[in-house]
């Protein structure tokens, strides 16, 4: 029971022997050398952590999880949560830990606790997290009446430093754990007095009445880590070296003050049910519900248990707003406290972040600072800077200023663009690790900057970010429990879910299993989802719900398109349903004319000619190609040929500032609110950045051949907005497919980059389906007239199903079977590669506890390498482009940055970071060897780990075997140096 008694008074009330009282009172938990010069006793830290857990229960933990802990503990969830969080460091009561600091060890020795032959500093051989499990496990088995309850609790203690060891690791070196009466009584005393301090009668009284499921255990473990990290902040919890000053009531006051100072909070906190079924759409989002949106929300209302919803609808149908509305319903019905929206790329995350901000404000304006943007370039999002970094708001709604006196900057979180669509035909990206683990908070009211530390982003109530964050929560990496805890109290929405390639899909499927077992509702969105993927996602989620790895619940064929599939389980019975009646799409299907533009030349001359022809009498053309070099070449052809019109180039090798400006300009001229700004003649040449979630409207699409679903995504940029005025020649949307040519034997020839990225089999099947609509690919240039074309969106699900179905659809001479066998062998190899990083081995999925979850760990040595774990590829490096100038350096925009690269303020830092650009992966090794941050960046956290690409006064520099330059229009240029 909480009171003001010190732990010393409590121990005496418990009638512990005076020697035991003295020994327990001398054990240290935080050394003065590492705790701002003040020793903090072990019991003080245990009680601080328990007190933080109590505040988390009241103000942070989702209602659904509180209910589960109440069920597990027999109605004492809050008390039990405090105990399990606080007991985490009991293993510090052992010689191995107590001997680690000579100054701290002296009082322990003086109290009569032998430290044996370990020697000061040698305790690192025996970790205190594992020591805690060794100390606690036999007592739990004895006092809880068996292994069942103890078996899932001890790994929570053993894993609080980020990894769960196997039971075989619980064998301490000789003398490390402590033997003899003195140590045994002291260790028992630590556990007993902590347990009584929190409010239980004794350890037997703590016994849970049932077990949490494994995914729930993982979420609980993450909350334990969160409580520990908060309570370990010496600036909020200064050390107490006198046990007479330590009490649980005092710890509670410290925890309350720290929570207020850090401004931590949860999200909705018992969100009420909407007043009417469609209120989340009409009242909250201000939309007149379309049939597909209404269908998704109605399904969220009707599901009897948390489950999976898969919404398939045409591009531009309003799926994301419907998903937010469904998330509100699911959260209110099932007790969730927030939402994570996972987007395929950084570029798509930014507009979604602004949309979620507006949505969250409708619940409570004070929730706005709880919305986090999770990607490595969030610093360039004006709204994020306004809210989280005290900058002026984009809409001038208040100054957005805070007290800068206590603010420190932090580097971006781990992530980058999602999917196997890298323009340079290489997979995998890397990010910059955060330079600090903790971030100071602002003195003025504002967001909780604690959440900006490493691995903490998902712990915010509302988050928008790249899907990498979801995938990372399904990897067997250190502190994965912290990431998963951030998902477990939320509704998870994944947009453009089809974008995951076969490698990344392994982690998505693994995440769905764990989320299903944790009772987390998930909403998947796609316009072009193959039926086999839909089935696999359903099976994965249900396997989690049912706790077995081999669930297969056939999904009925949807009645039409759009459609919604739901999957859940009731009383151990799996259910998978789809829309029972056809749902009317928002827009009627329109014919799209398809034609061929045979071209596999790298120069882009043929494409440039076709562009000129397409806009001869006006119009807007979008060109989407599969490689940056090809996009740059086409732009050059048009520019040097004197193109008369608005010409734009957009790709991933533009620096951050240029890419942001151009994206915004394209949206202004071609977006839904373009109106009179839409030019008479305009051409945008882009890479896969324009493939999805790029809300522009083009009259004509010229695109390199891509797999069918991605080709349809590109077609989704055609005639996208109602009311757009078009010339007579462009009343019917038209597509020219290029990047392919007629081979001598009749088999299509593909661009090498396209073949490397997508594989020959998918391209052959796409070519076959295009041929059926546009006529056969001829040896001569096509005239663009095309054939019967496709009806969009009506034909979309059928085309995707055929593209990824089992039936052969290519002419015999194309050797489709051979291409499929080569593709399948490569895909199987990639699947096997992904399995070594998955959170759980298939044969261990049904294991009831977290014991041994990190049986082999991940090969990811650092946060910087984590992206490569979920992306299957070589690391690439993001660099800051600077130009050497007389007496110093200049940023890309010309800003002077000093003799050694010094920057004086945030504004100059922003300008400098506008030069961020990602190098092609083939330059990674050379960049690691040759590039370093400038000396003047050492005291700027956003810069100190960023390599500088220093260009000479001619704007170029050698890098490895290449010559690298940056052109303000073309972007990064890489030329192989002749030898």
Give a quick precis of the structure.
InterPro entries: Cas3-like_dom (IPR054712), Cas3_C (IPR041372), CRISPR-assoc_Cas3_HD (IPR006483), CRISPR-assoc_Cas3_HD_sf (IPR038257), Helicase_Cas3_CRISPR-ass_core (IPR006474), P-loop_NTPase (IPR027417). With 979 residues, the chain is of the alpha/beta class.
Topology:
Blueprint: H1 7-13, H2 18-26, E1 28-30, E2 40-41, H3 42-59, H4 63-73, H5 77-86, H6 95-98, H7 102-110, H8 128-144, H9 147-158, H10 181-198, H11 214-231, H12 248-262, H13 279-284, H14 291-302, E3 308-312, H15 319-334, E4 338-343, H16 346-361, E5 371-374, H17 382-388, E6 462-466, H18 468-472, H19 480-488, E7 490-494, H20 502-517, E8 522-526, H21 531-546, E9 563-570, E10 573-578, E11 590-596, H22 605-614, E12 619-624, H23 628-640, E13 646-650, H24 656-670, E14 681-686, E15 700-704, H25 708-715, E16 734-738, E17 740-742, E18 748-750, H26 752-758, H27 760-774, E19 790-792, H28 796-803, H29 816-835, H30 866-871, E20 878-885, E21 888-891, H31 906-913, E22 916-918, H32 924-930, E23 948-951, E24 956-959, E25 962-967, E26 971-976
Parallel strand pairs: 3-8, 4-6, 4-7, 5-6, 7-8, 11-16, 12-14, 12-15, 13-14, 15-16, 20-23
Antiparallel strand pairs: 1-2, 3-9, 9-10, 11-19, 17-18, 20-21, 20-22, 24-25, 25-26
Helix pairs in contact: 2-10, 3-5, 3-10, 3-11, 3-12, 4-5, 8-9, 9-11, 11-19, 14-15, 20-21, 20-29, 22-23, 26-27, 27-29
């Amino acid at each position: 029971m909480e009171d003001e008694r010190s732990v010393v008074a409590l121990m005496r009330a418990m009638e512990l022997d005076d020697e035991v009282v003295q020994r327990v009172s001398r054990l240290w938990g935080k050394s003065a050398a590492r705790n701002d010069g003040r020793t903090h006793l072990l019991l003080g830290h245990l009680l601080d952590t328990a007190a933080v857990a109590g505040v988390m229960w009241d103000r942070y933990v989702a209602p659904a999880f509180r209910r589960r802990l109440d069920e597990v503990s027999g109605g004492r969830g809050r008390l039990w949560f405090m105990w399990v969080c606080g007991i985490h460091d009991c293993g510090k009561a052992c010689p191995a830990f107590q001997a680690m600091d000579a100054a701290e060890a002296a009082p322990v020795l003086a109290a009569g606790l032998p430290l044996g032959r370990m020697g000061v500093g040698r305790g690192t051989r025996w970790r205190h997290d594992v020591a805690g499990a060794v100390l606690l496990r036999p007592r739990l088995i004895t006092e809880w009446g068996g292994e069942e309850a103890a078996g899932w609790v001890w790994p929570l203690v053993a894993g609080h430093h980020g990894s769960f060891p196997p039971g075989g690791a619980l064998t301490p070196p000789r003398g490390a754990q402590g033997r003899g009466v003195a140590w045994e009584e002291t260790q028992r005393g630590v556990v007993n007095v902590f347990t009584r301090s929190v409010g239980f009668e004794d350890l037997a009284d703590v016994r849970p009445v049932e077990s949490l499921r494994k995914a729930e255990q993982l979420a609980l473990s993450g909350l334990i880590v969160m409580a520990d990290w908060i309570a370990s902040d010496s600036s909020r919890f200064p050390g107490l070296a006198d046990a007479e000053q330590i009490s649980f009531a005092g710890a509670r006051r410290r925890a309350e003050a720290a929570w207020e100072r850090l401004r931590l909070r949860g999200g909705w906190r018992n969100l009420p049910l909407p007043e009417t079924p469609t209120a989340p759409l009409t009242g909250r989002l201000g939309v007149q519900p379309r049939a597909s949106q209404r269908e998704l929300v109605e399904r969220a209302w009707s599901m009897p248990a948390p489950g999976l919803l898969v919404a398939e609808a045409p591009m531009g149908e309003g799926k994301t707003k419907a998903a937010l509305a469904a998330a509100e319903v699911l959260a209110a019905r099932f007790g969730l406290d927030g939402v994570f929206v996972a987007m395929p790329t950084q570029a798509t995350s930014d507009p979604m972040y602004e949309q979620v901000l507006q949505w969250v404000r409708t619940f409570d304006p004070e929730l706005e600072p709880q919305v986090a943007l999770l990607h490595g370039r969030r610093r360039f999002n004006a709204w994020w800077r306004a809210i989280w970094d005290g900058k002026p708001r984009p809409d001038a709604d208040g100054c957005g200023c805070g007290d800068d006196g206590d603010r420190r900057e932090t580097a971006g979180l781990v992530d980058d663009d999602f999917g196997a669509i890298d323009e340079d035909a290489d997979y995998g990206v890397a990010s910059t690790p955060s330079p600090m683990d903790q971030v100071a908070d602002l003195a003025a009211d504002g967001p909780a900057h604690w959440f900006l530390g490493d691995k903490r982003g998902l712990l915010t109530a509302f988050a928008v970010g790249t899907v990498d964050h979801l995938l990372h929560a399904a990897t067997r990496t250190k502190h994965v429990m912290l990431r998963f805890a951030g998902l477990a109290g939320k509704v998870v929405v994944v947009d453009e879910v089809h974008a995951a390639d076969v490698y990344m899909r392994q982690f998505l499927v693994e995440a769905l299993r764990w989320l299903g077992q944790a009772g987390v509702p998930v909403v998947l969105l796609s316009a072009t989802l193959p039926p086999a993927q839909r089935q696999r996602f359903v099976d994965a989620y249900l396997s989690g719900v049912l706790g077995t790895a081999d669930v297969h619940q056939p999904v009925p064929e949807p009645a039409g398109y759009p459609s919604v599939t739901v999957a859940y389980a009731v009383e151990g019975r799996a259910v998978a349903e789809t829309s029972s009646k056809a749902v009317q799409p928002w827009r009627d299907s329109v014919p799209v004319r398809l034609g061929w533009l045979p071209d596999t030349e790298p120069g882009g001359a043929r494409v440039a000619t076709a562009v000129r022809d397409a806009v001869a009498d006006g119009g807007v053309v979008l060109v989407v190609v599969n490689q940056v070099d090809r996009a740059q070449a086409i732009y050059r052809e048009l520019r040097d040929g004197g193109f008369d019109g608005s010409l734009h180039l957009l790709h991933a090798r533009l620096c951050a500032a240029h890419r942001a400006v151009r994206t915004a300009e394209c949206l202004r001229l071609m977006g839904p609110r373009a109106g009179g700004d839409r030019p008479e003649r305009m051409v945008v040449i882009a890479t896969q950045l324009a493939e999805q979630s790029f809300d522009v409207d083009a009259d004509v699409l010229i695109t390199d051949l891509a797999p069918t679903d991605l080709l349809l995504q590109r077609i989704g940029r055609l005639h996208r907005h109602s009311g757009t005025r078009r010339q007579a020649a462009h009343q019917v949307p038209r597509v020219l497919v290029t990047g392919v040519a007629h081979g001598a034997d009749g088999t299509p020839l593909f661009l090498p980059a396209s073949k490397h990225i997508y594989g020959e089999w998918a391209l052959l099947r796409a070519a076959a389906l295009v041929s059926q609509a546009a006529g056969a690919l001829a040896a001569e240039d096509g005239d663009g007239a095309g054939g019967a074309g496709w009806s969009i969106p009506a034909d979309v699900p059928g085309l995707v199903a055929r593209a990824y179905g089992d039936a052969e659809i290519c002419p015999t001479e194309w050797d489709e079977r051979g291409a499929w066998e080569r593709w399948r062998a490569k895909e199987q190899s990639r699947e096997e590669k992904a399995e070594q990083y998955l959170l759980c081995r298939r044969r261990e999925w049904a294991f009831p506890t977290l014991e041994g979850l990190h049986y082999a760990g991940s090969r990811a040595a650092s946060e910087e390498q984590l992206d490569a774990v979920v992306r299957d590829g070589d690391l690439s490096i993001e660099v800051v482009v600077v130009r050497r100038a007389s007496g110093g350096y200049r940023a890309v925009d010309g800003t002077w940055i000093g003799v050694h690269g010094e920057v004086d303020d945030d504004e100059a830092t922003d300008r400098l970071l506008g030069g961020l650009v990602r190098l092609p992966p083939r330059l990674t090794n050379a960049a690691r060897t040759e590039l370093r941050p400038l000396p003047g960046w050492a005291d700027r956290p956003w810069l100190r780990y960023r390599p500088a690409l220093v260009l000479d006064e001619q704007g170029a520099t050698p890098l490895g075997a290449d010559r690298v330059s940056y052109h303000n229009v073309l972007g990064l240029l890489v030329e192989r140096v002749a030898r």
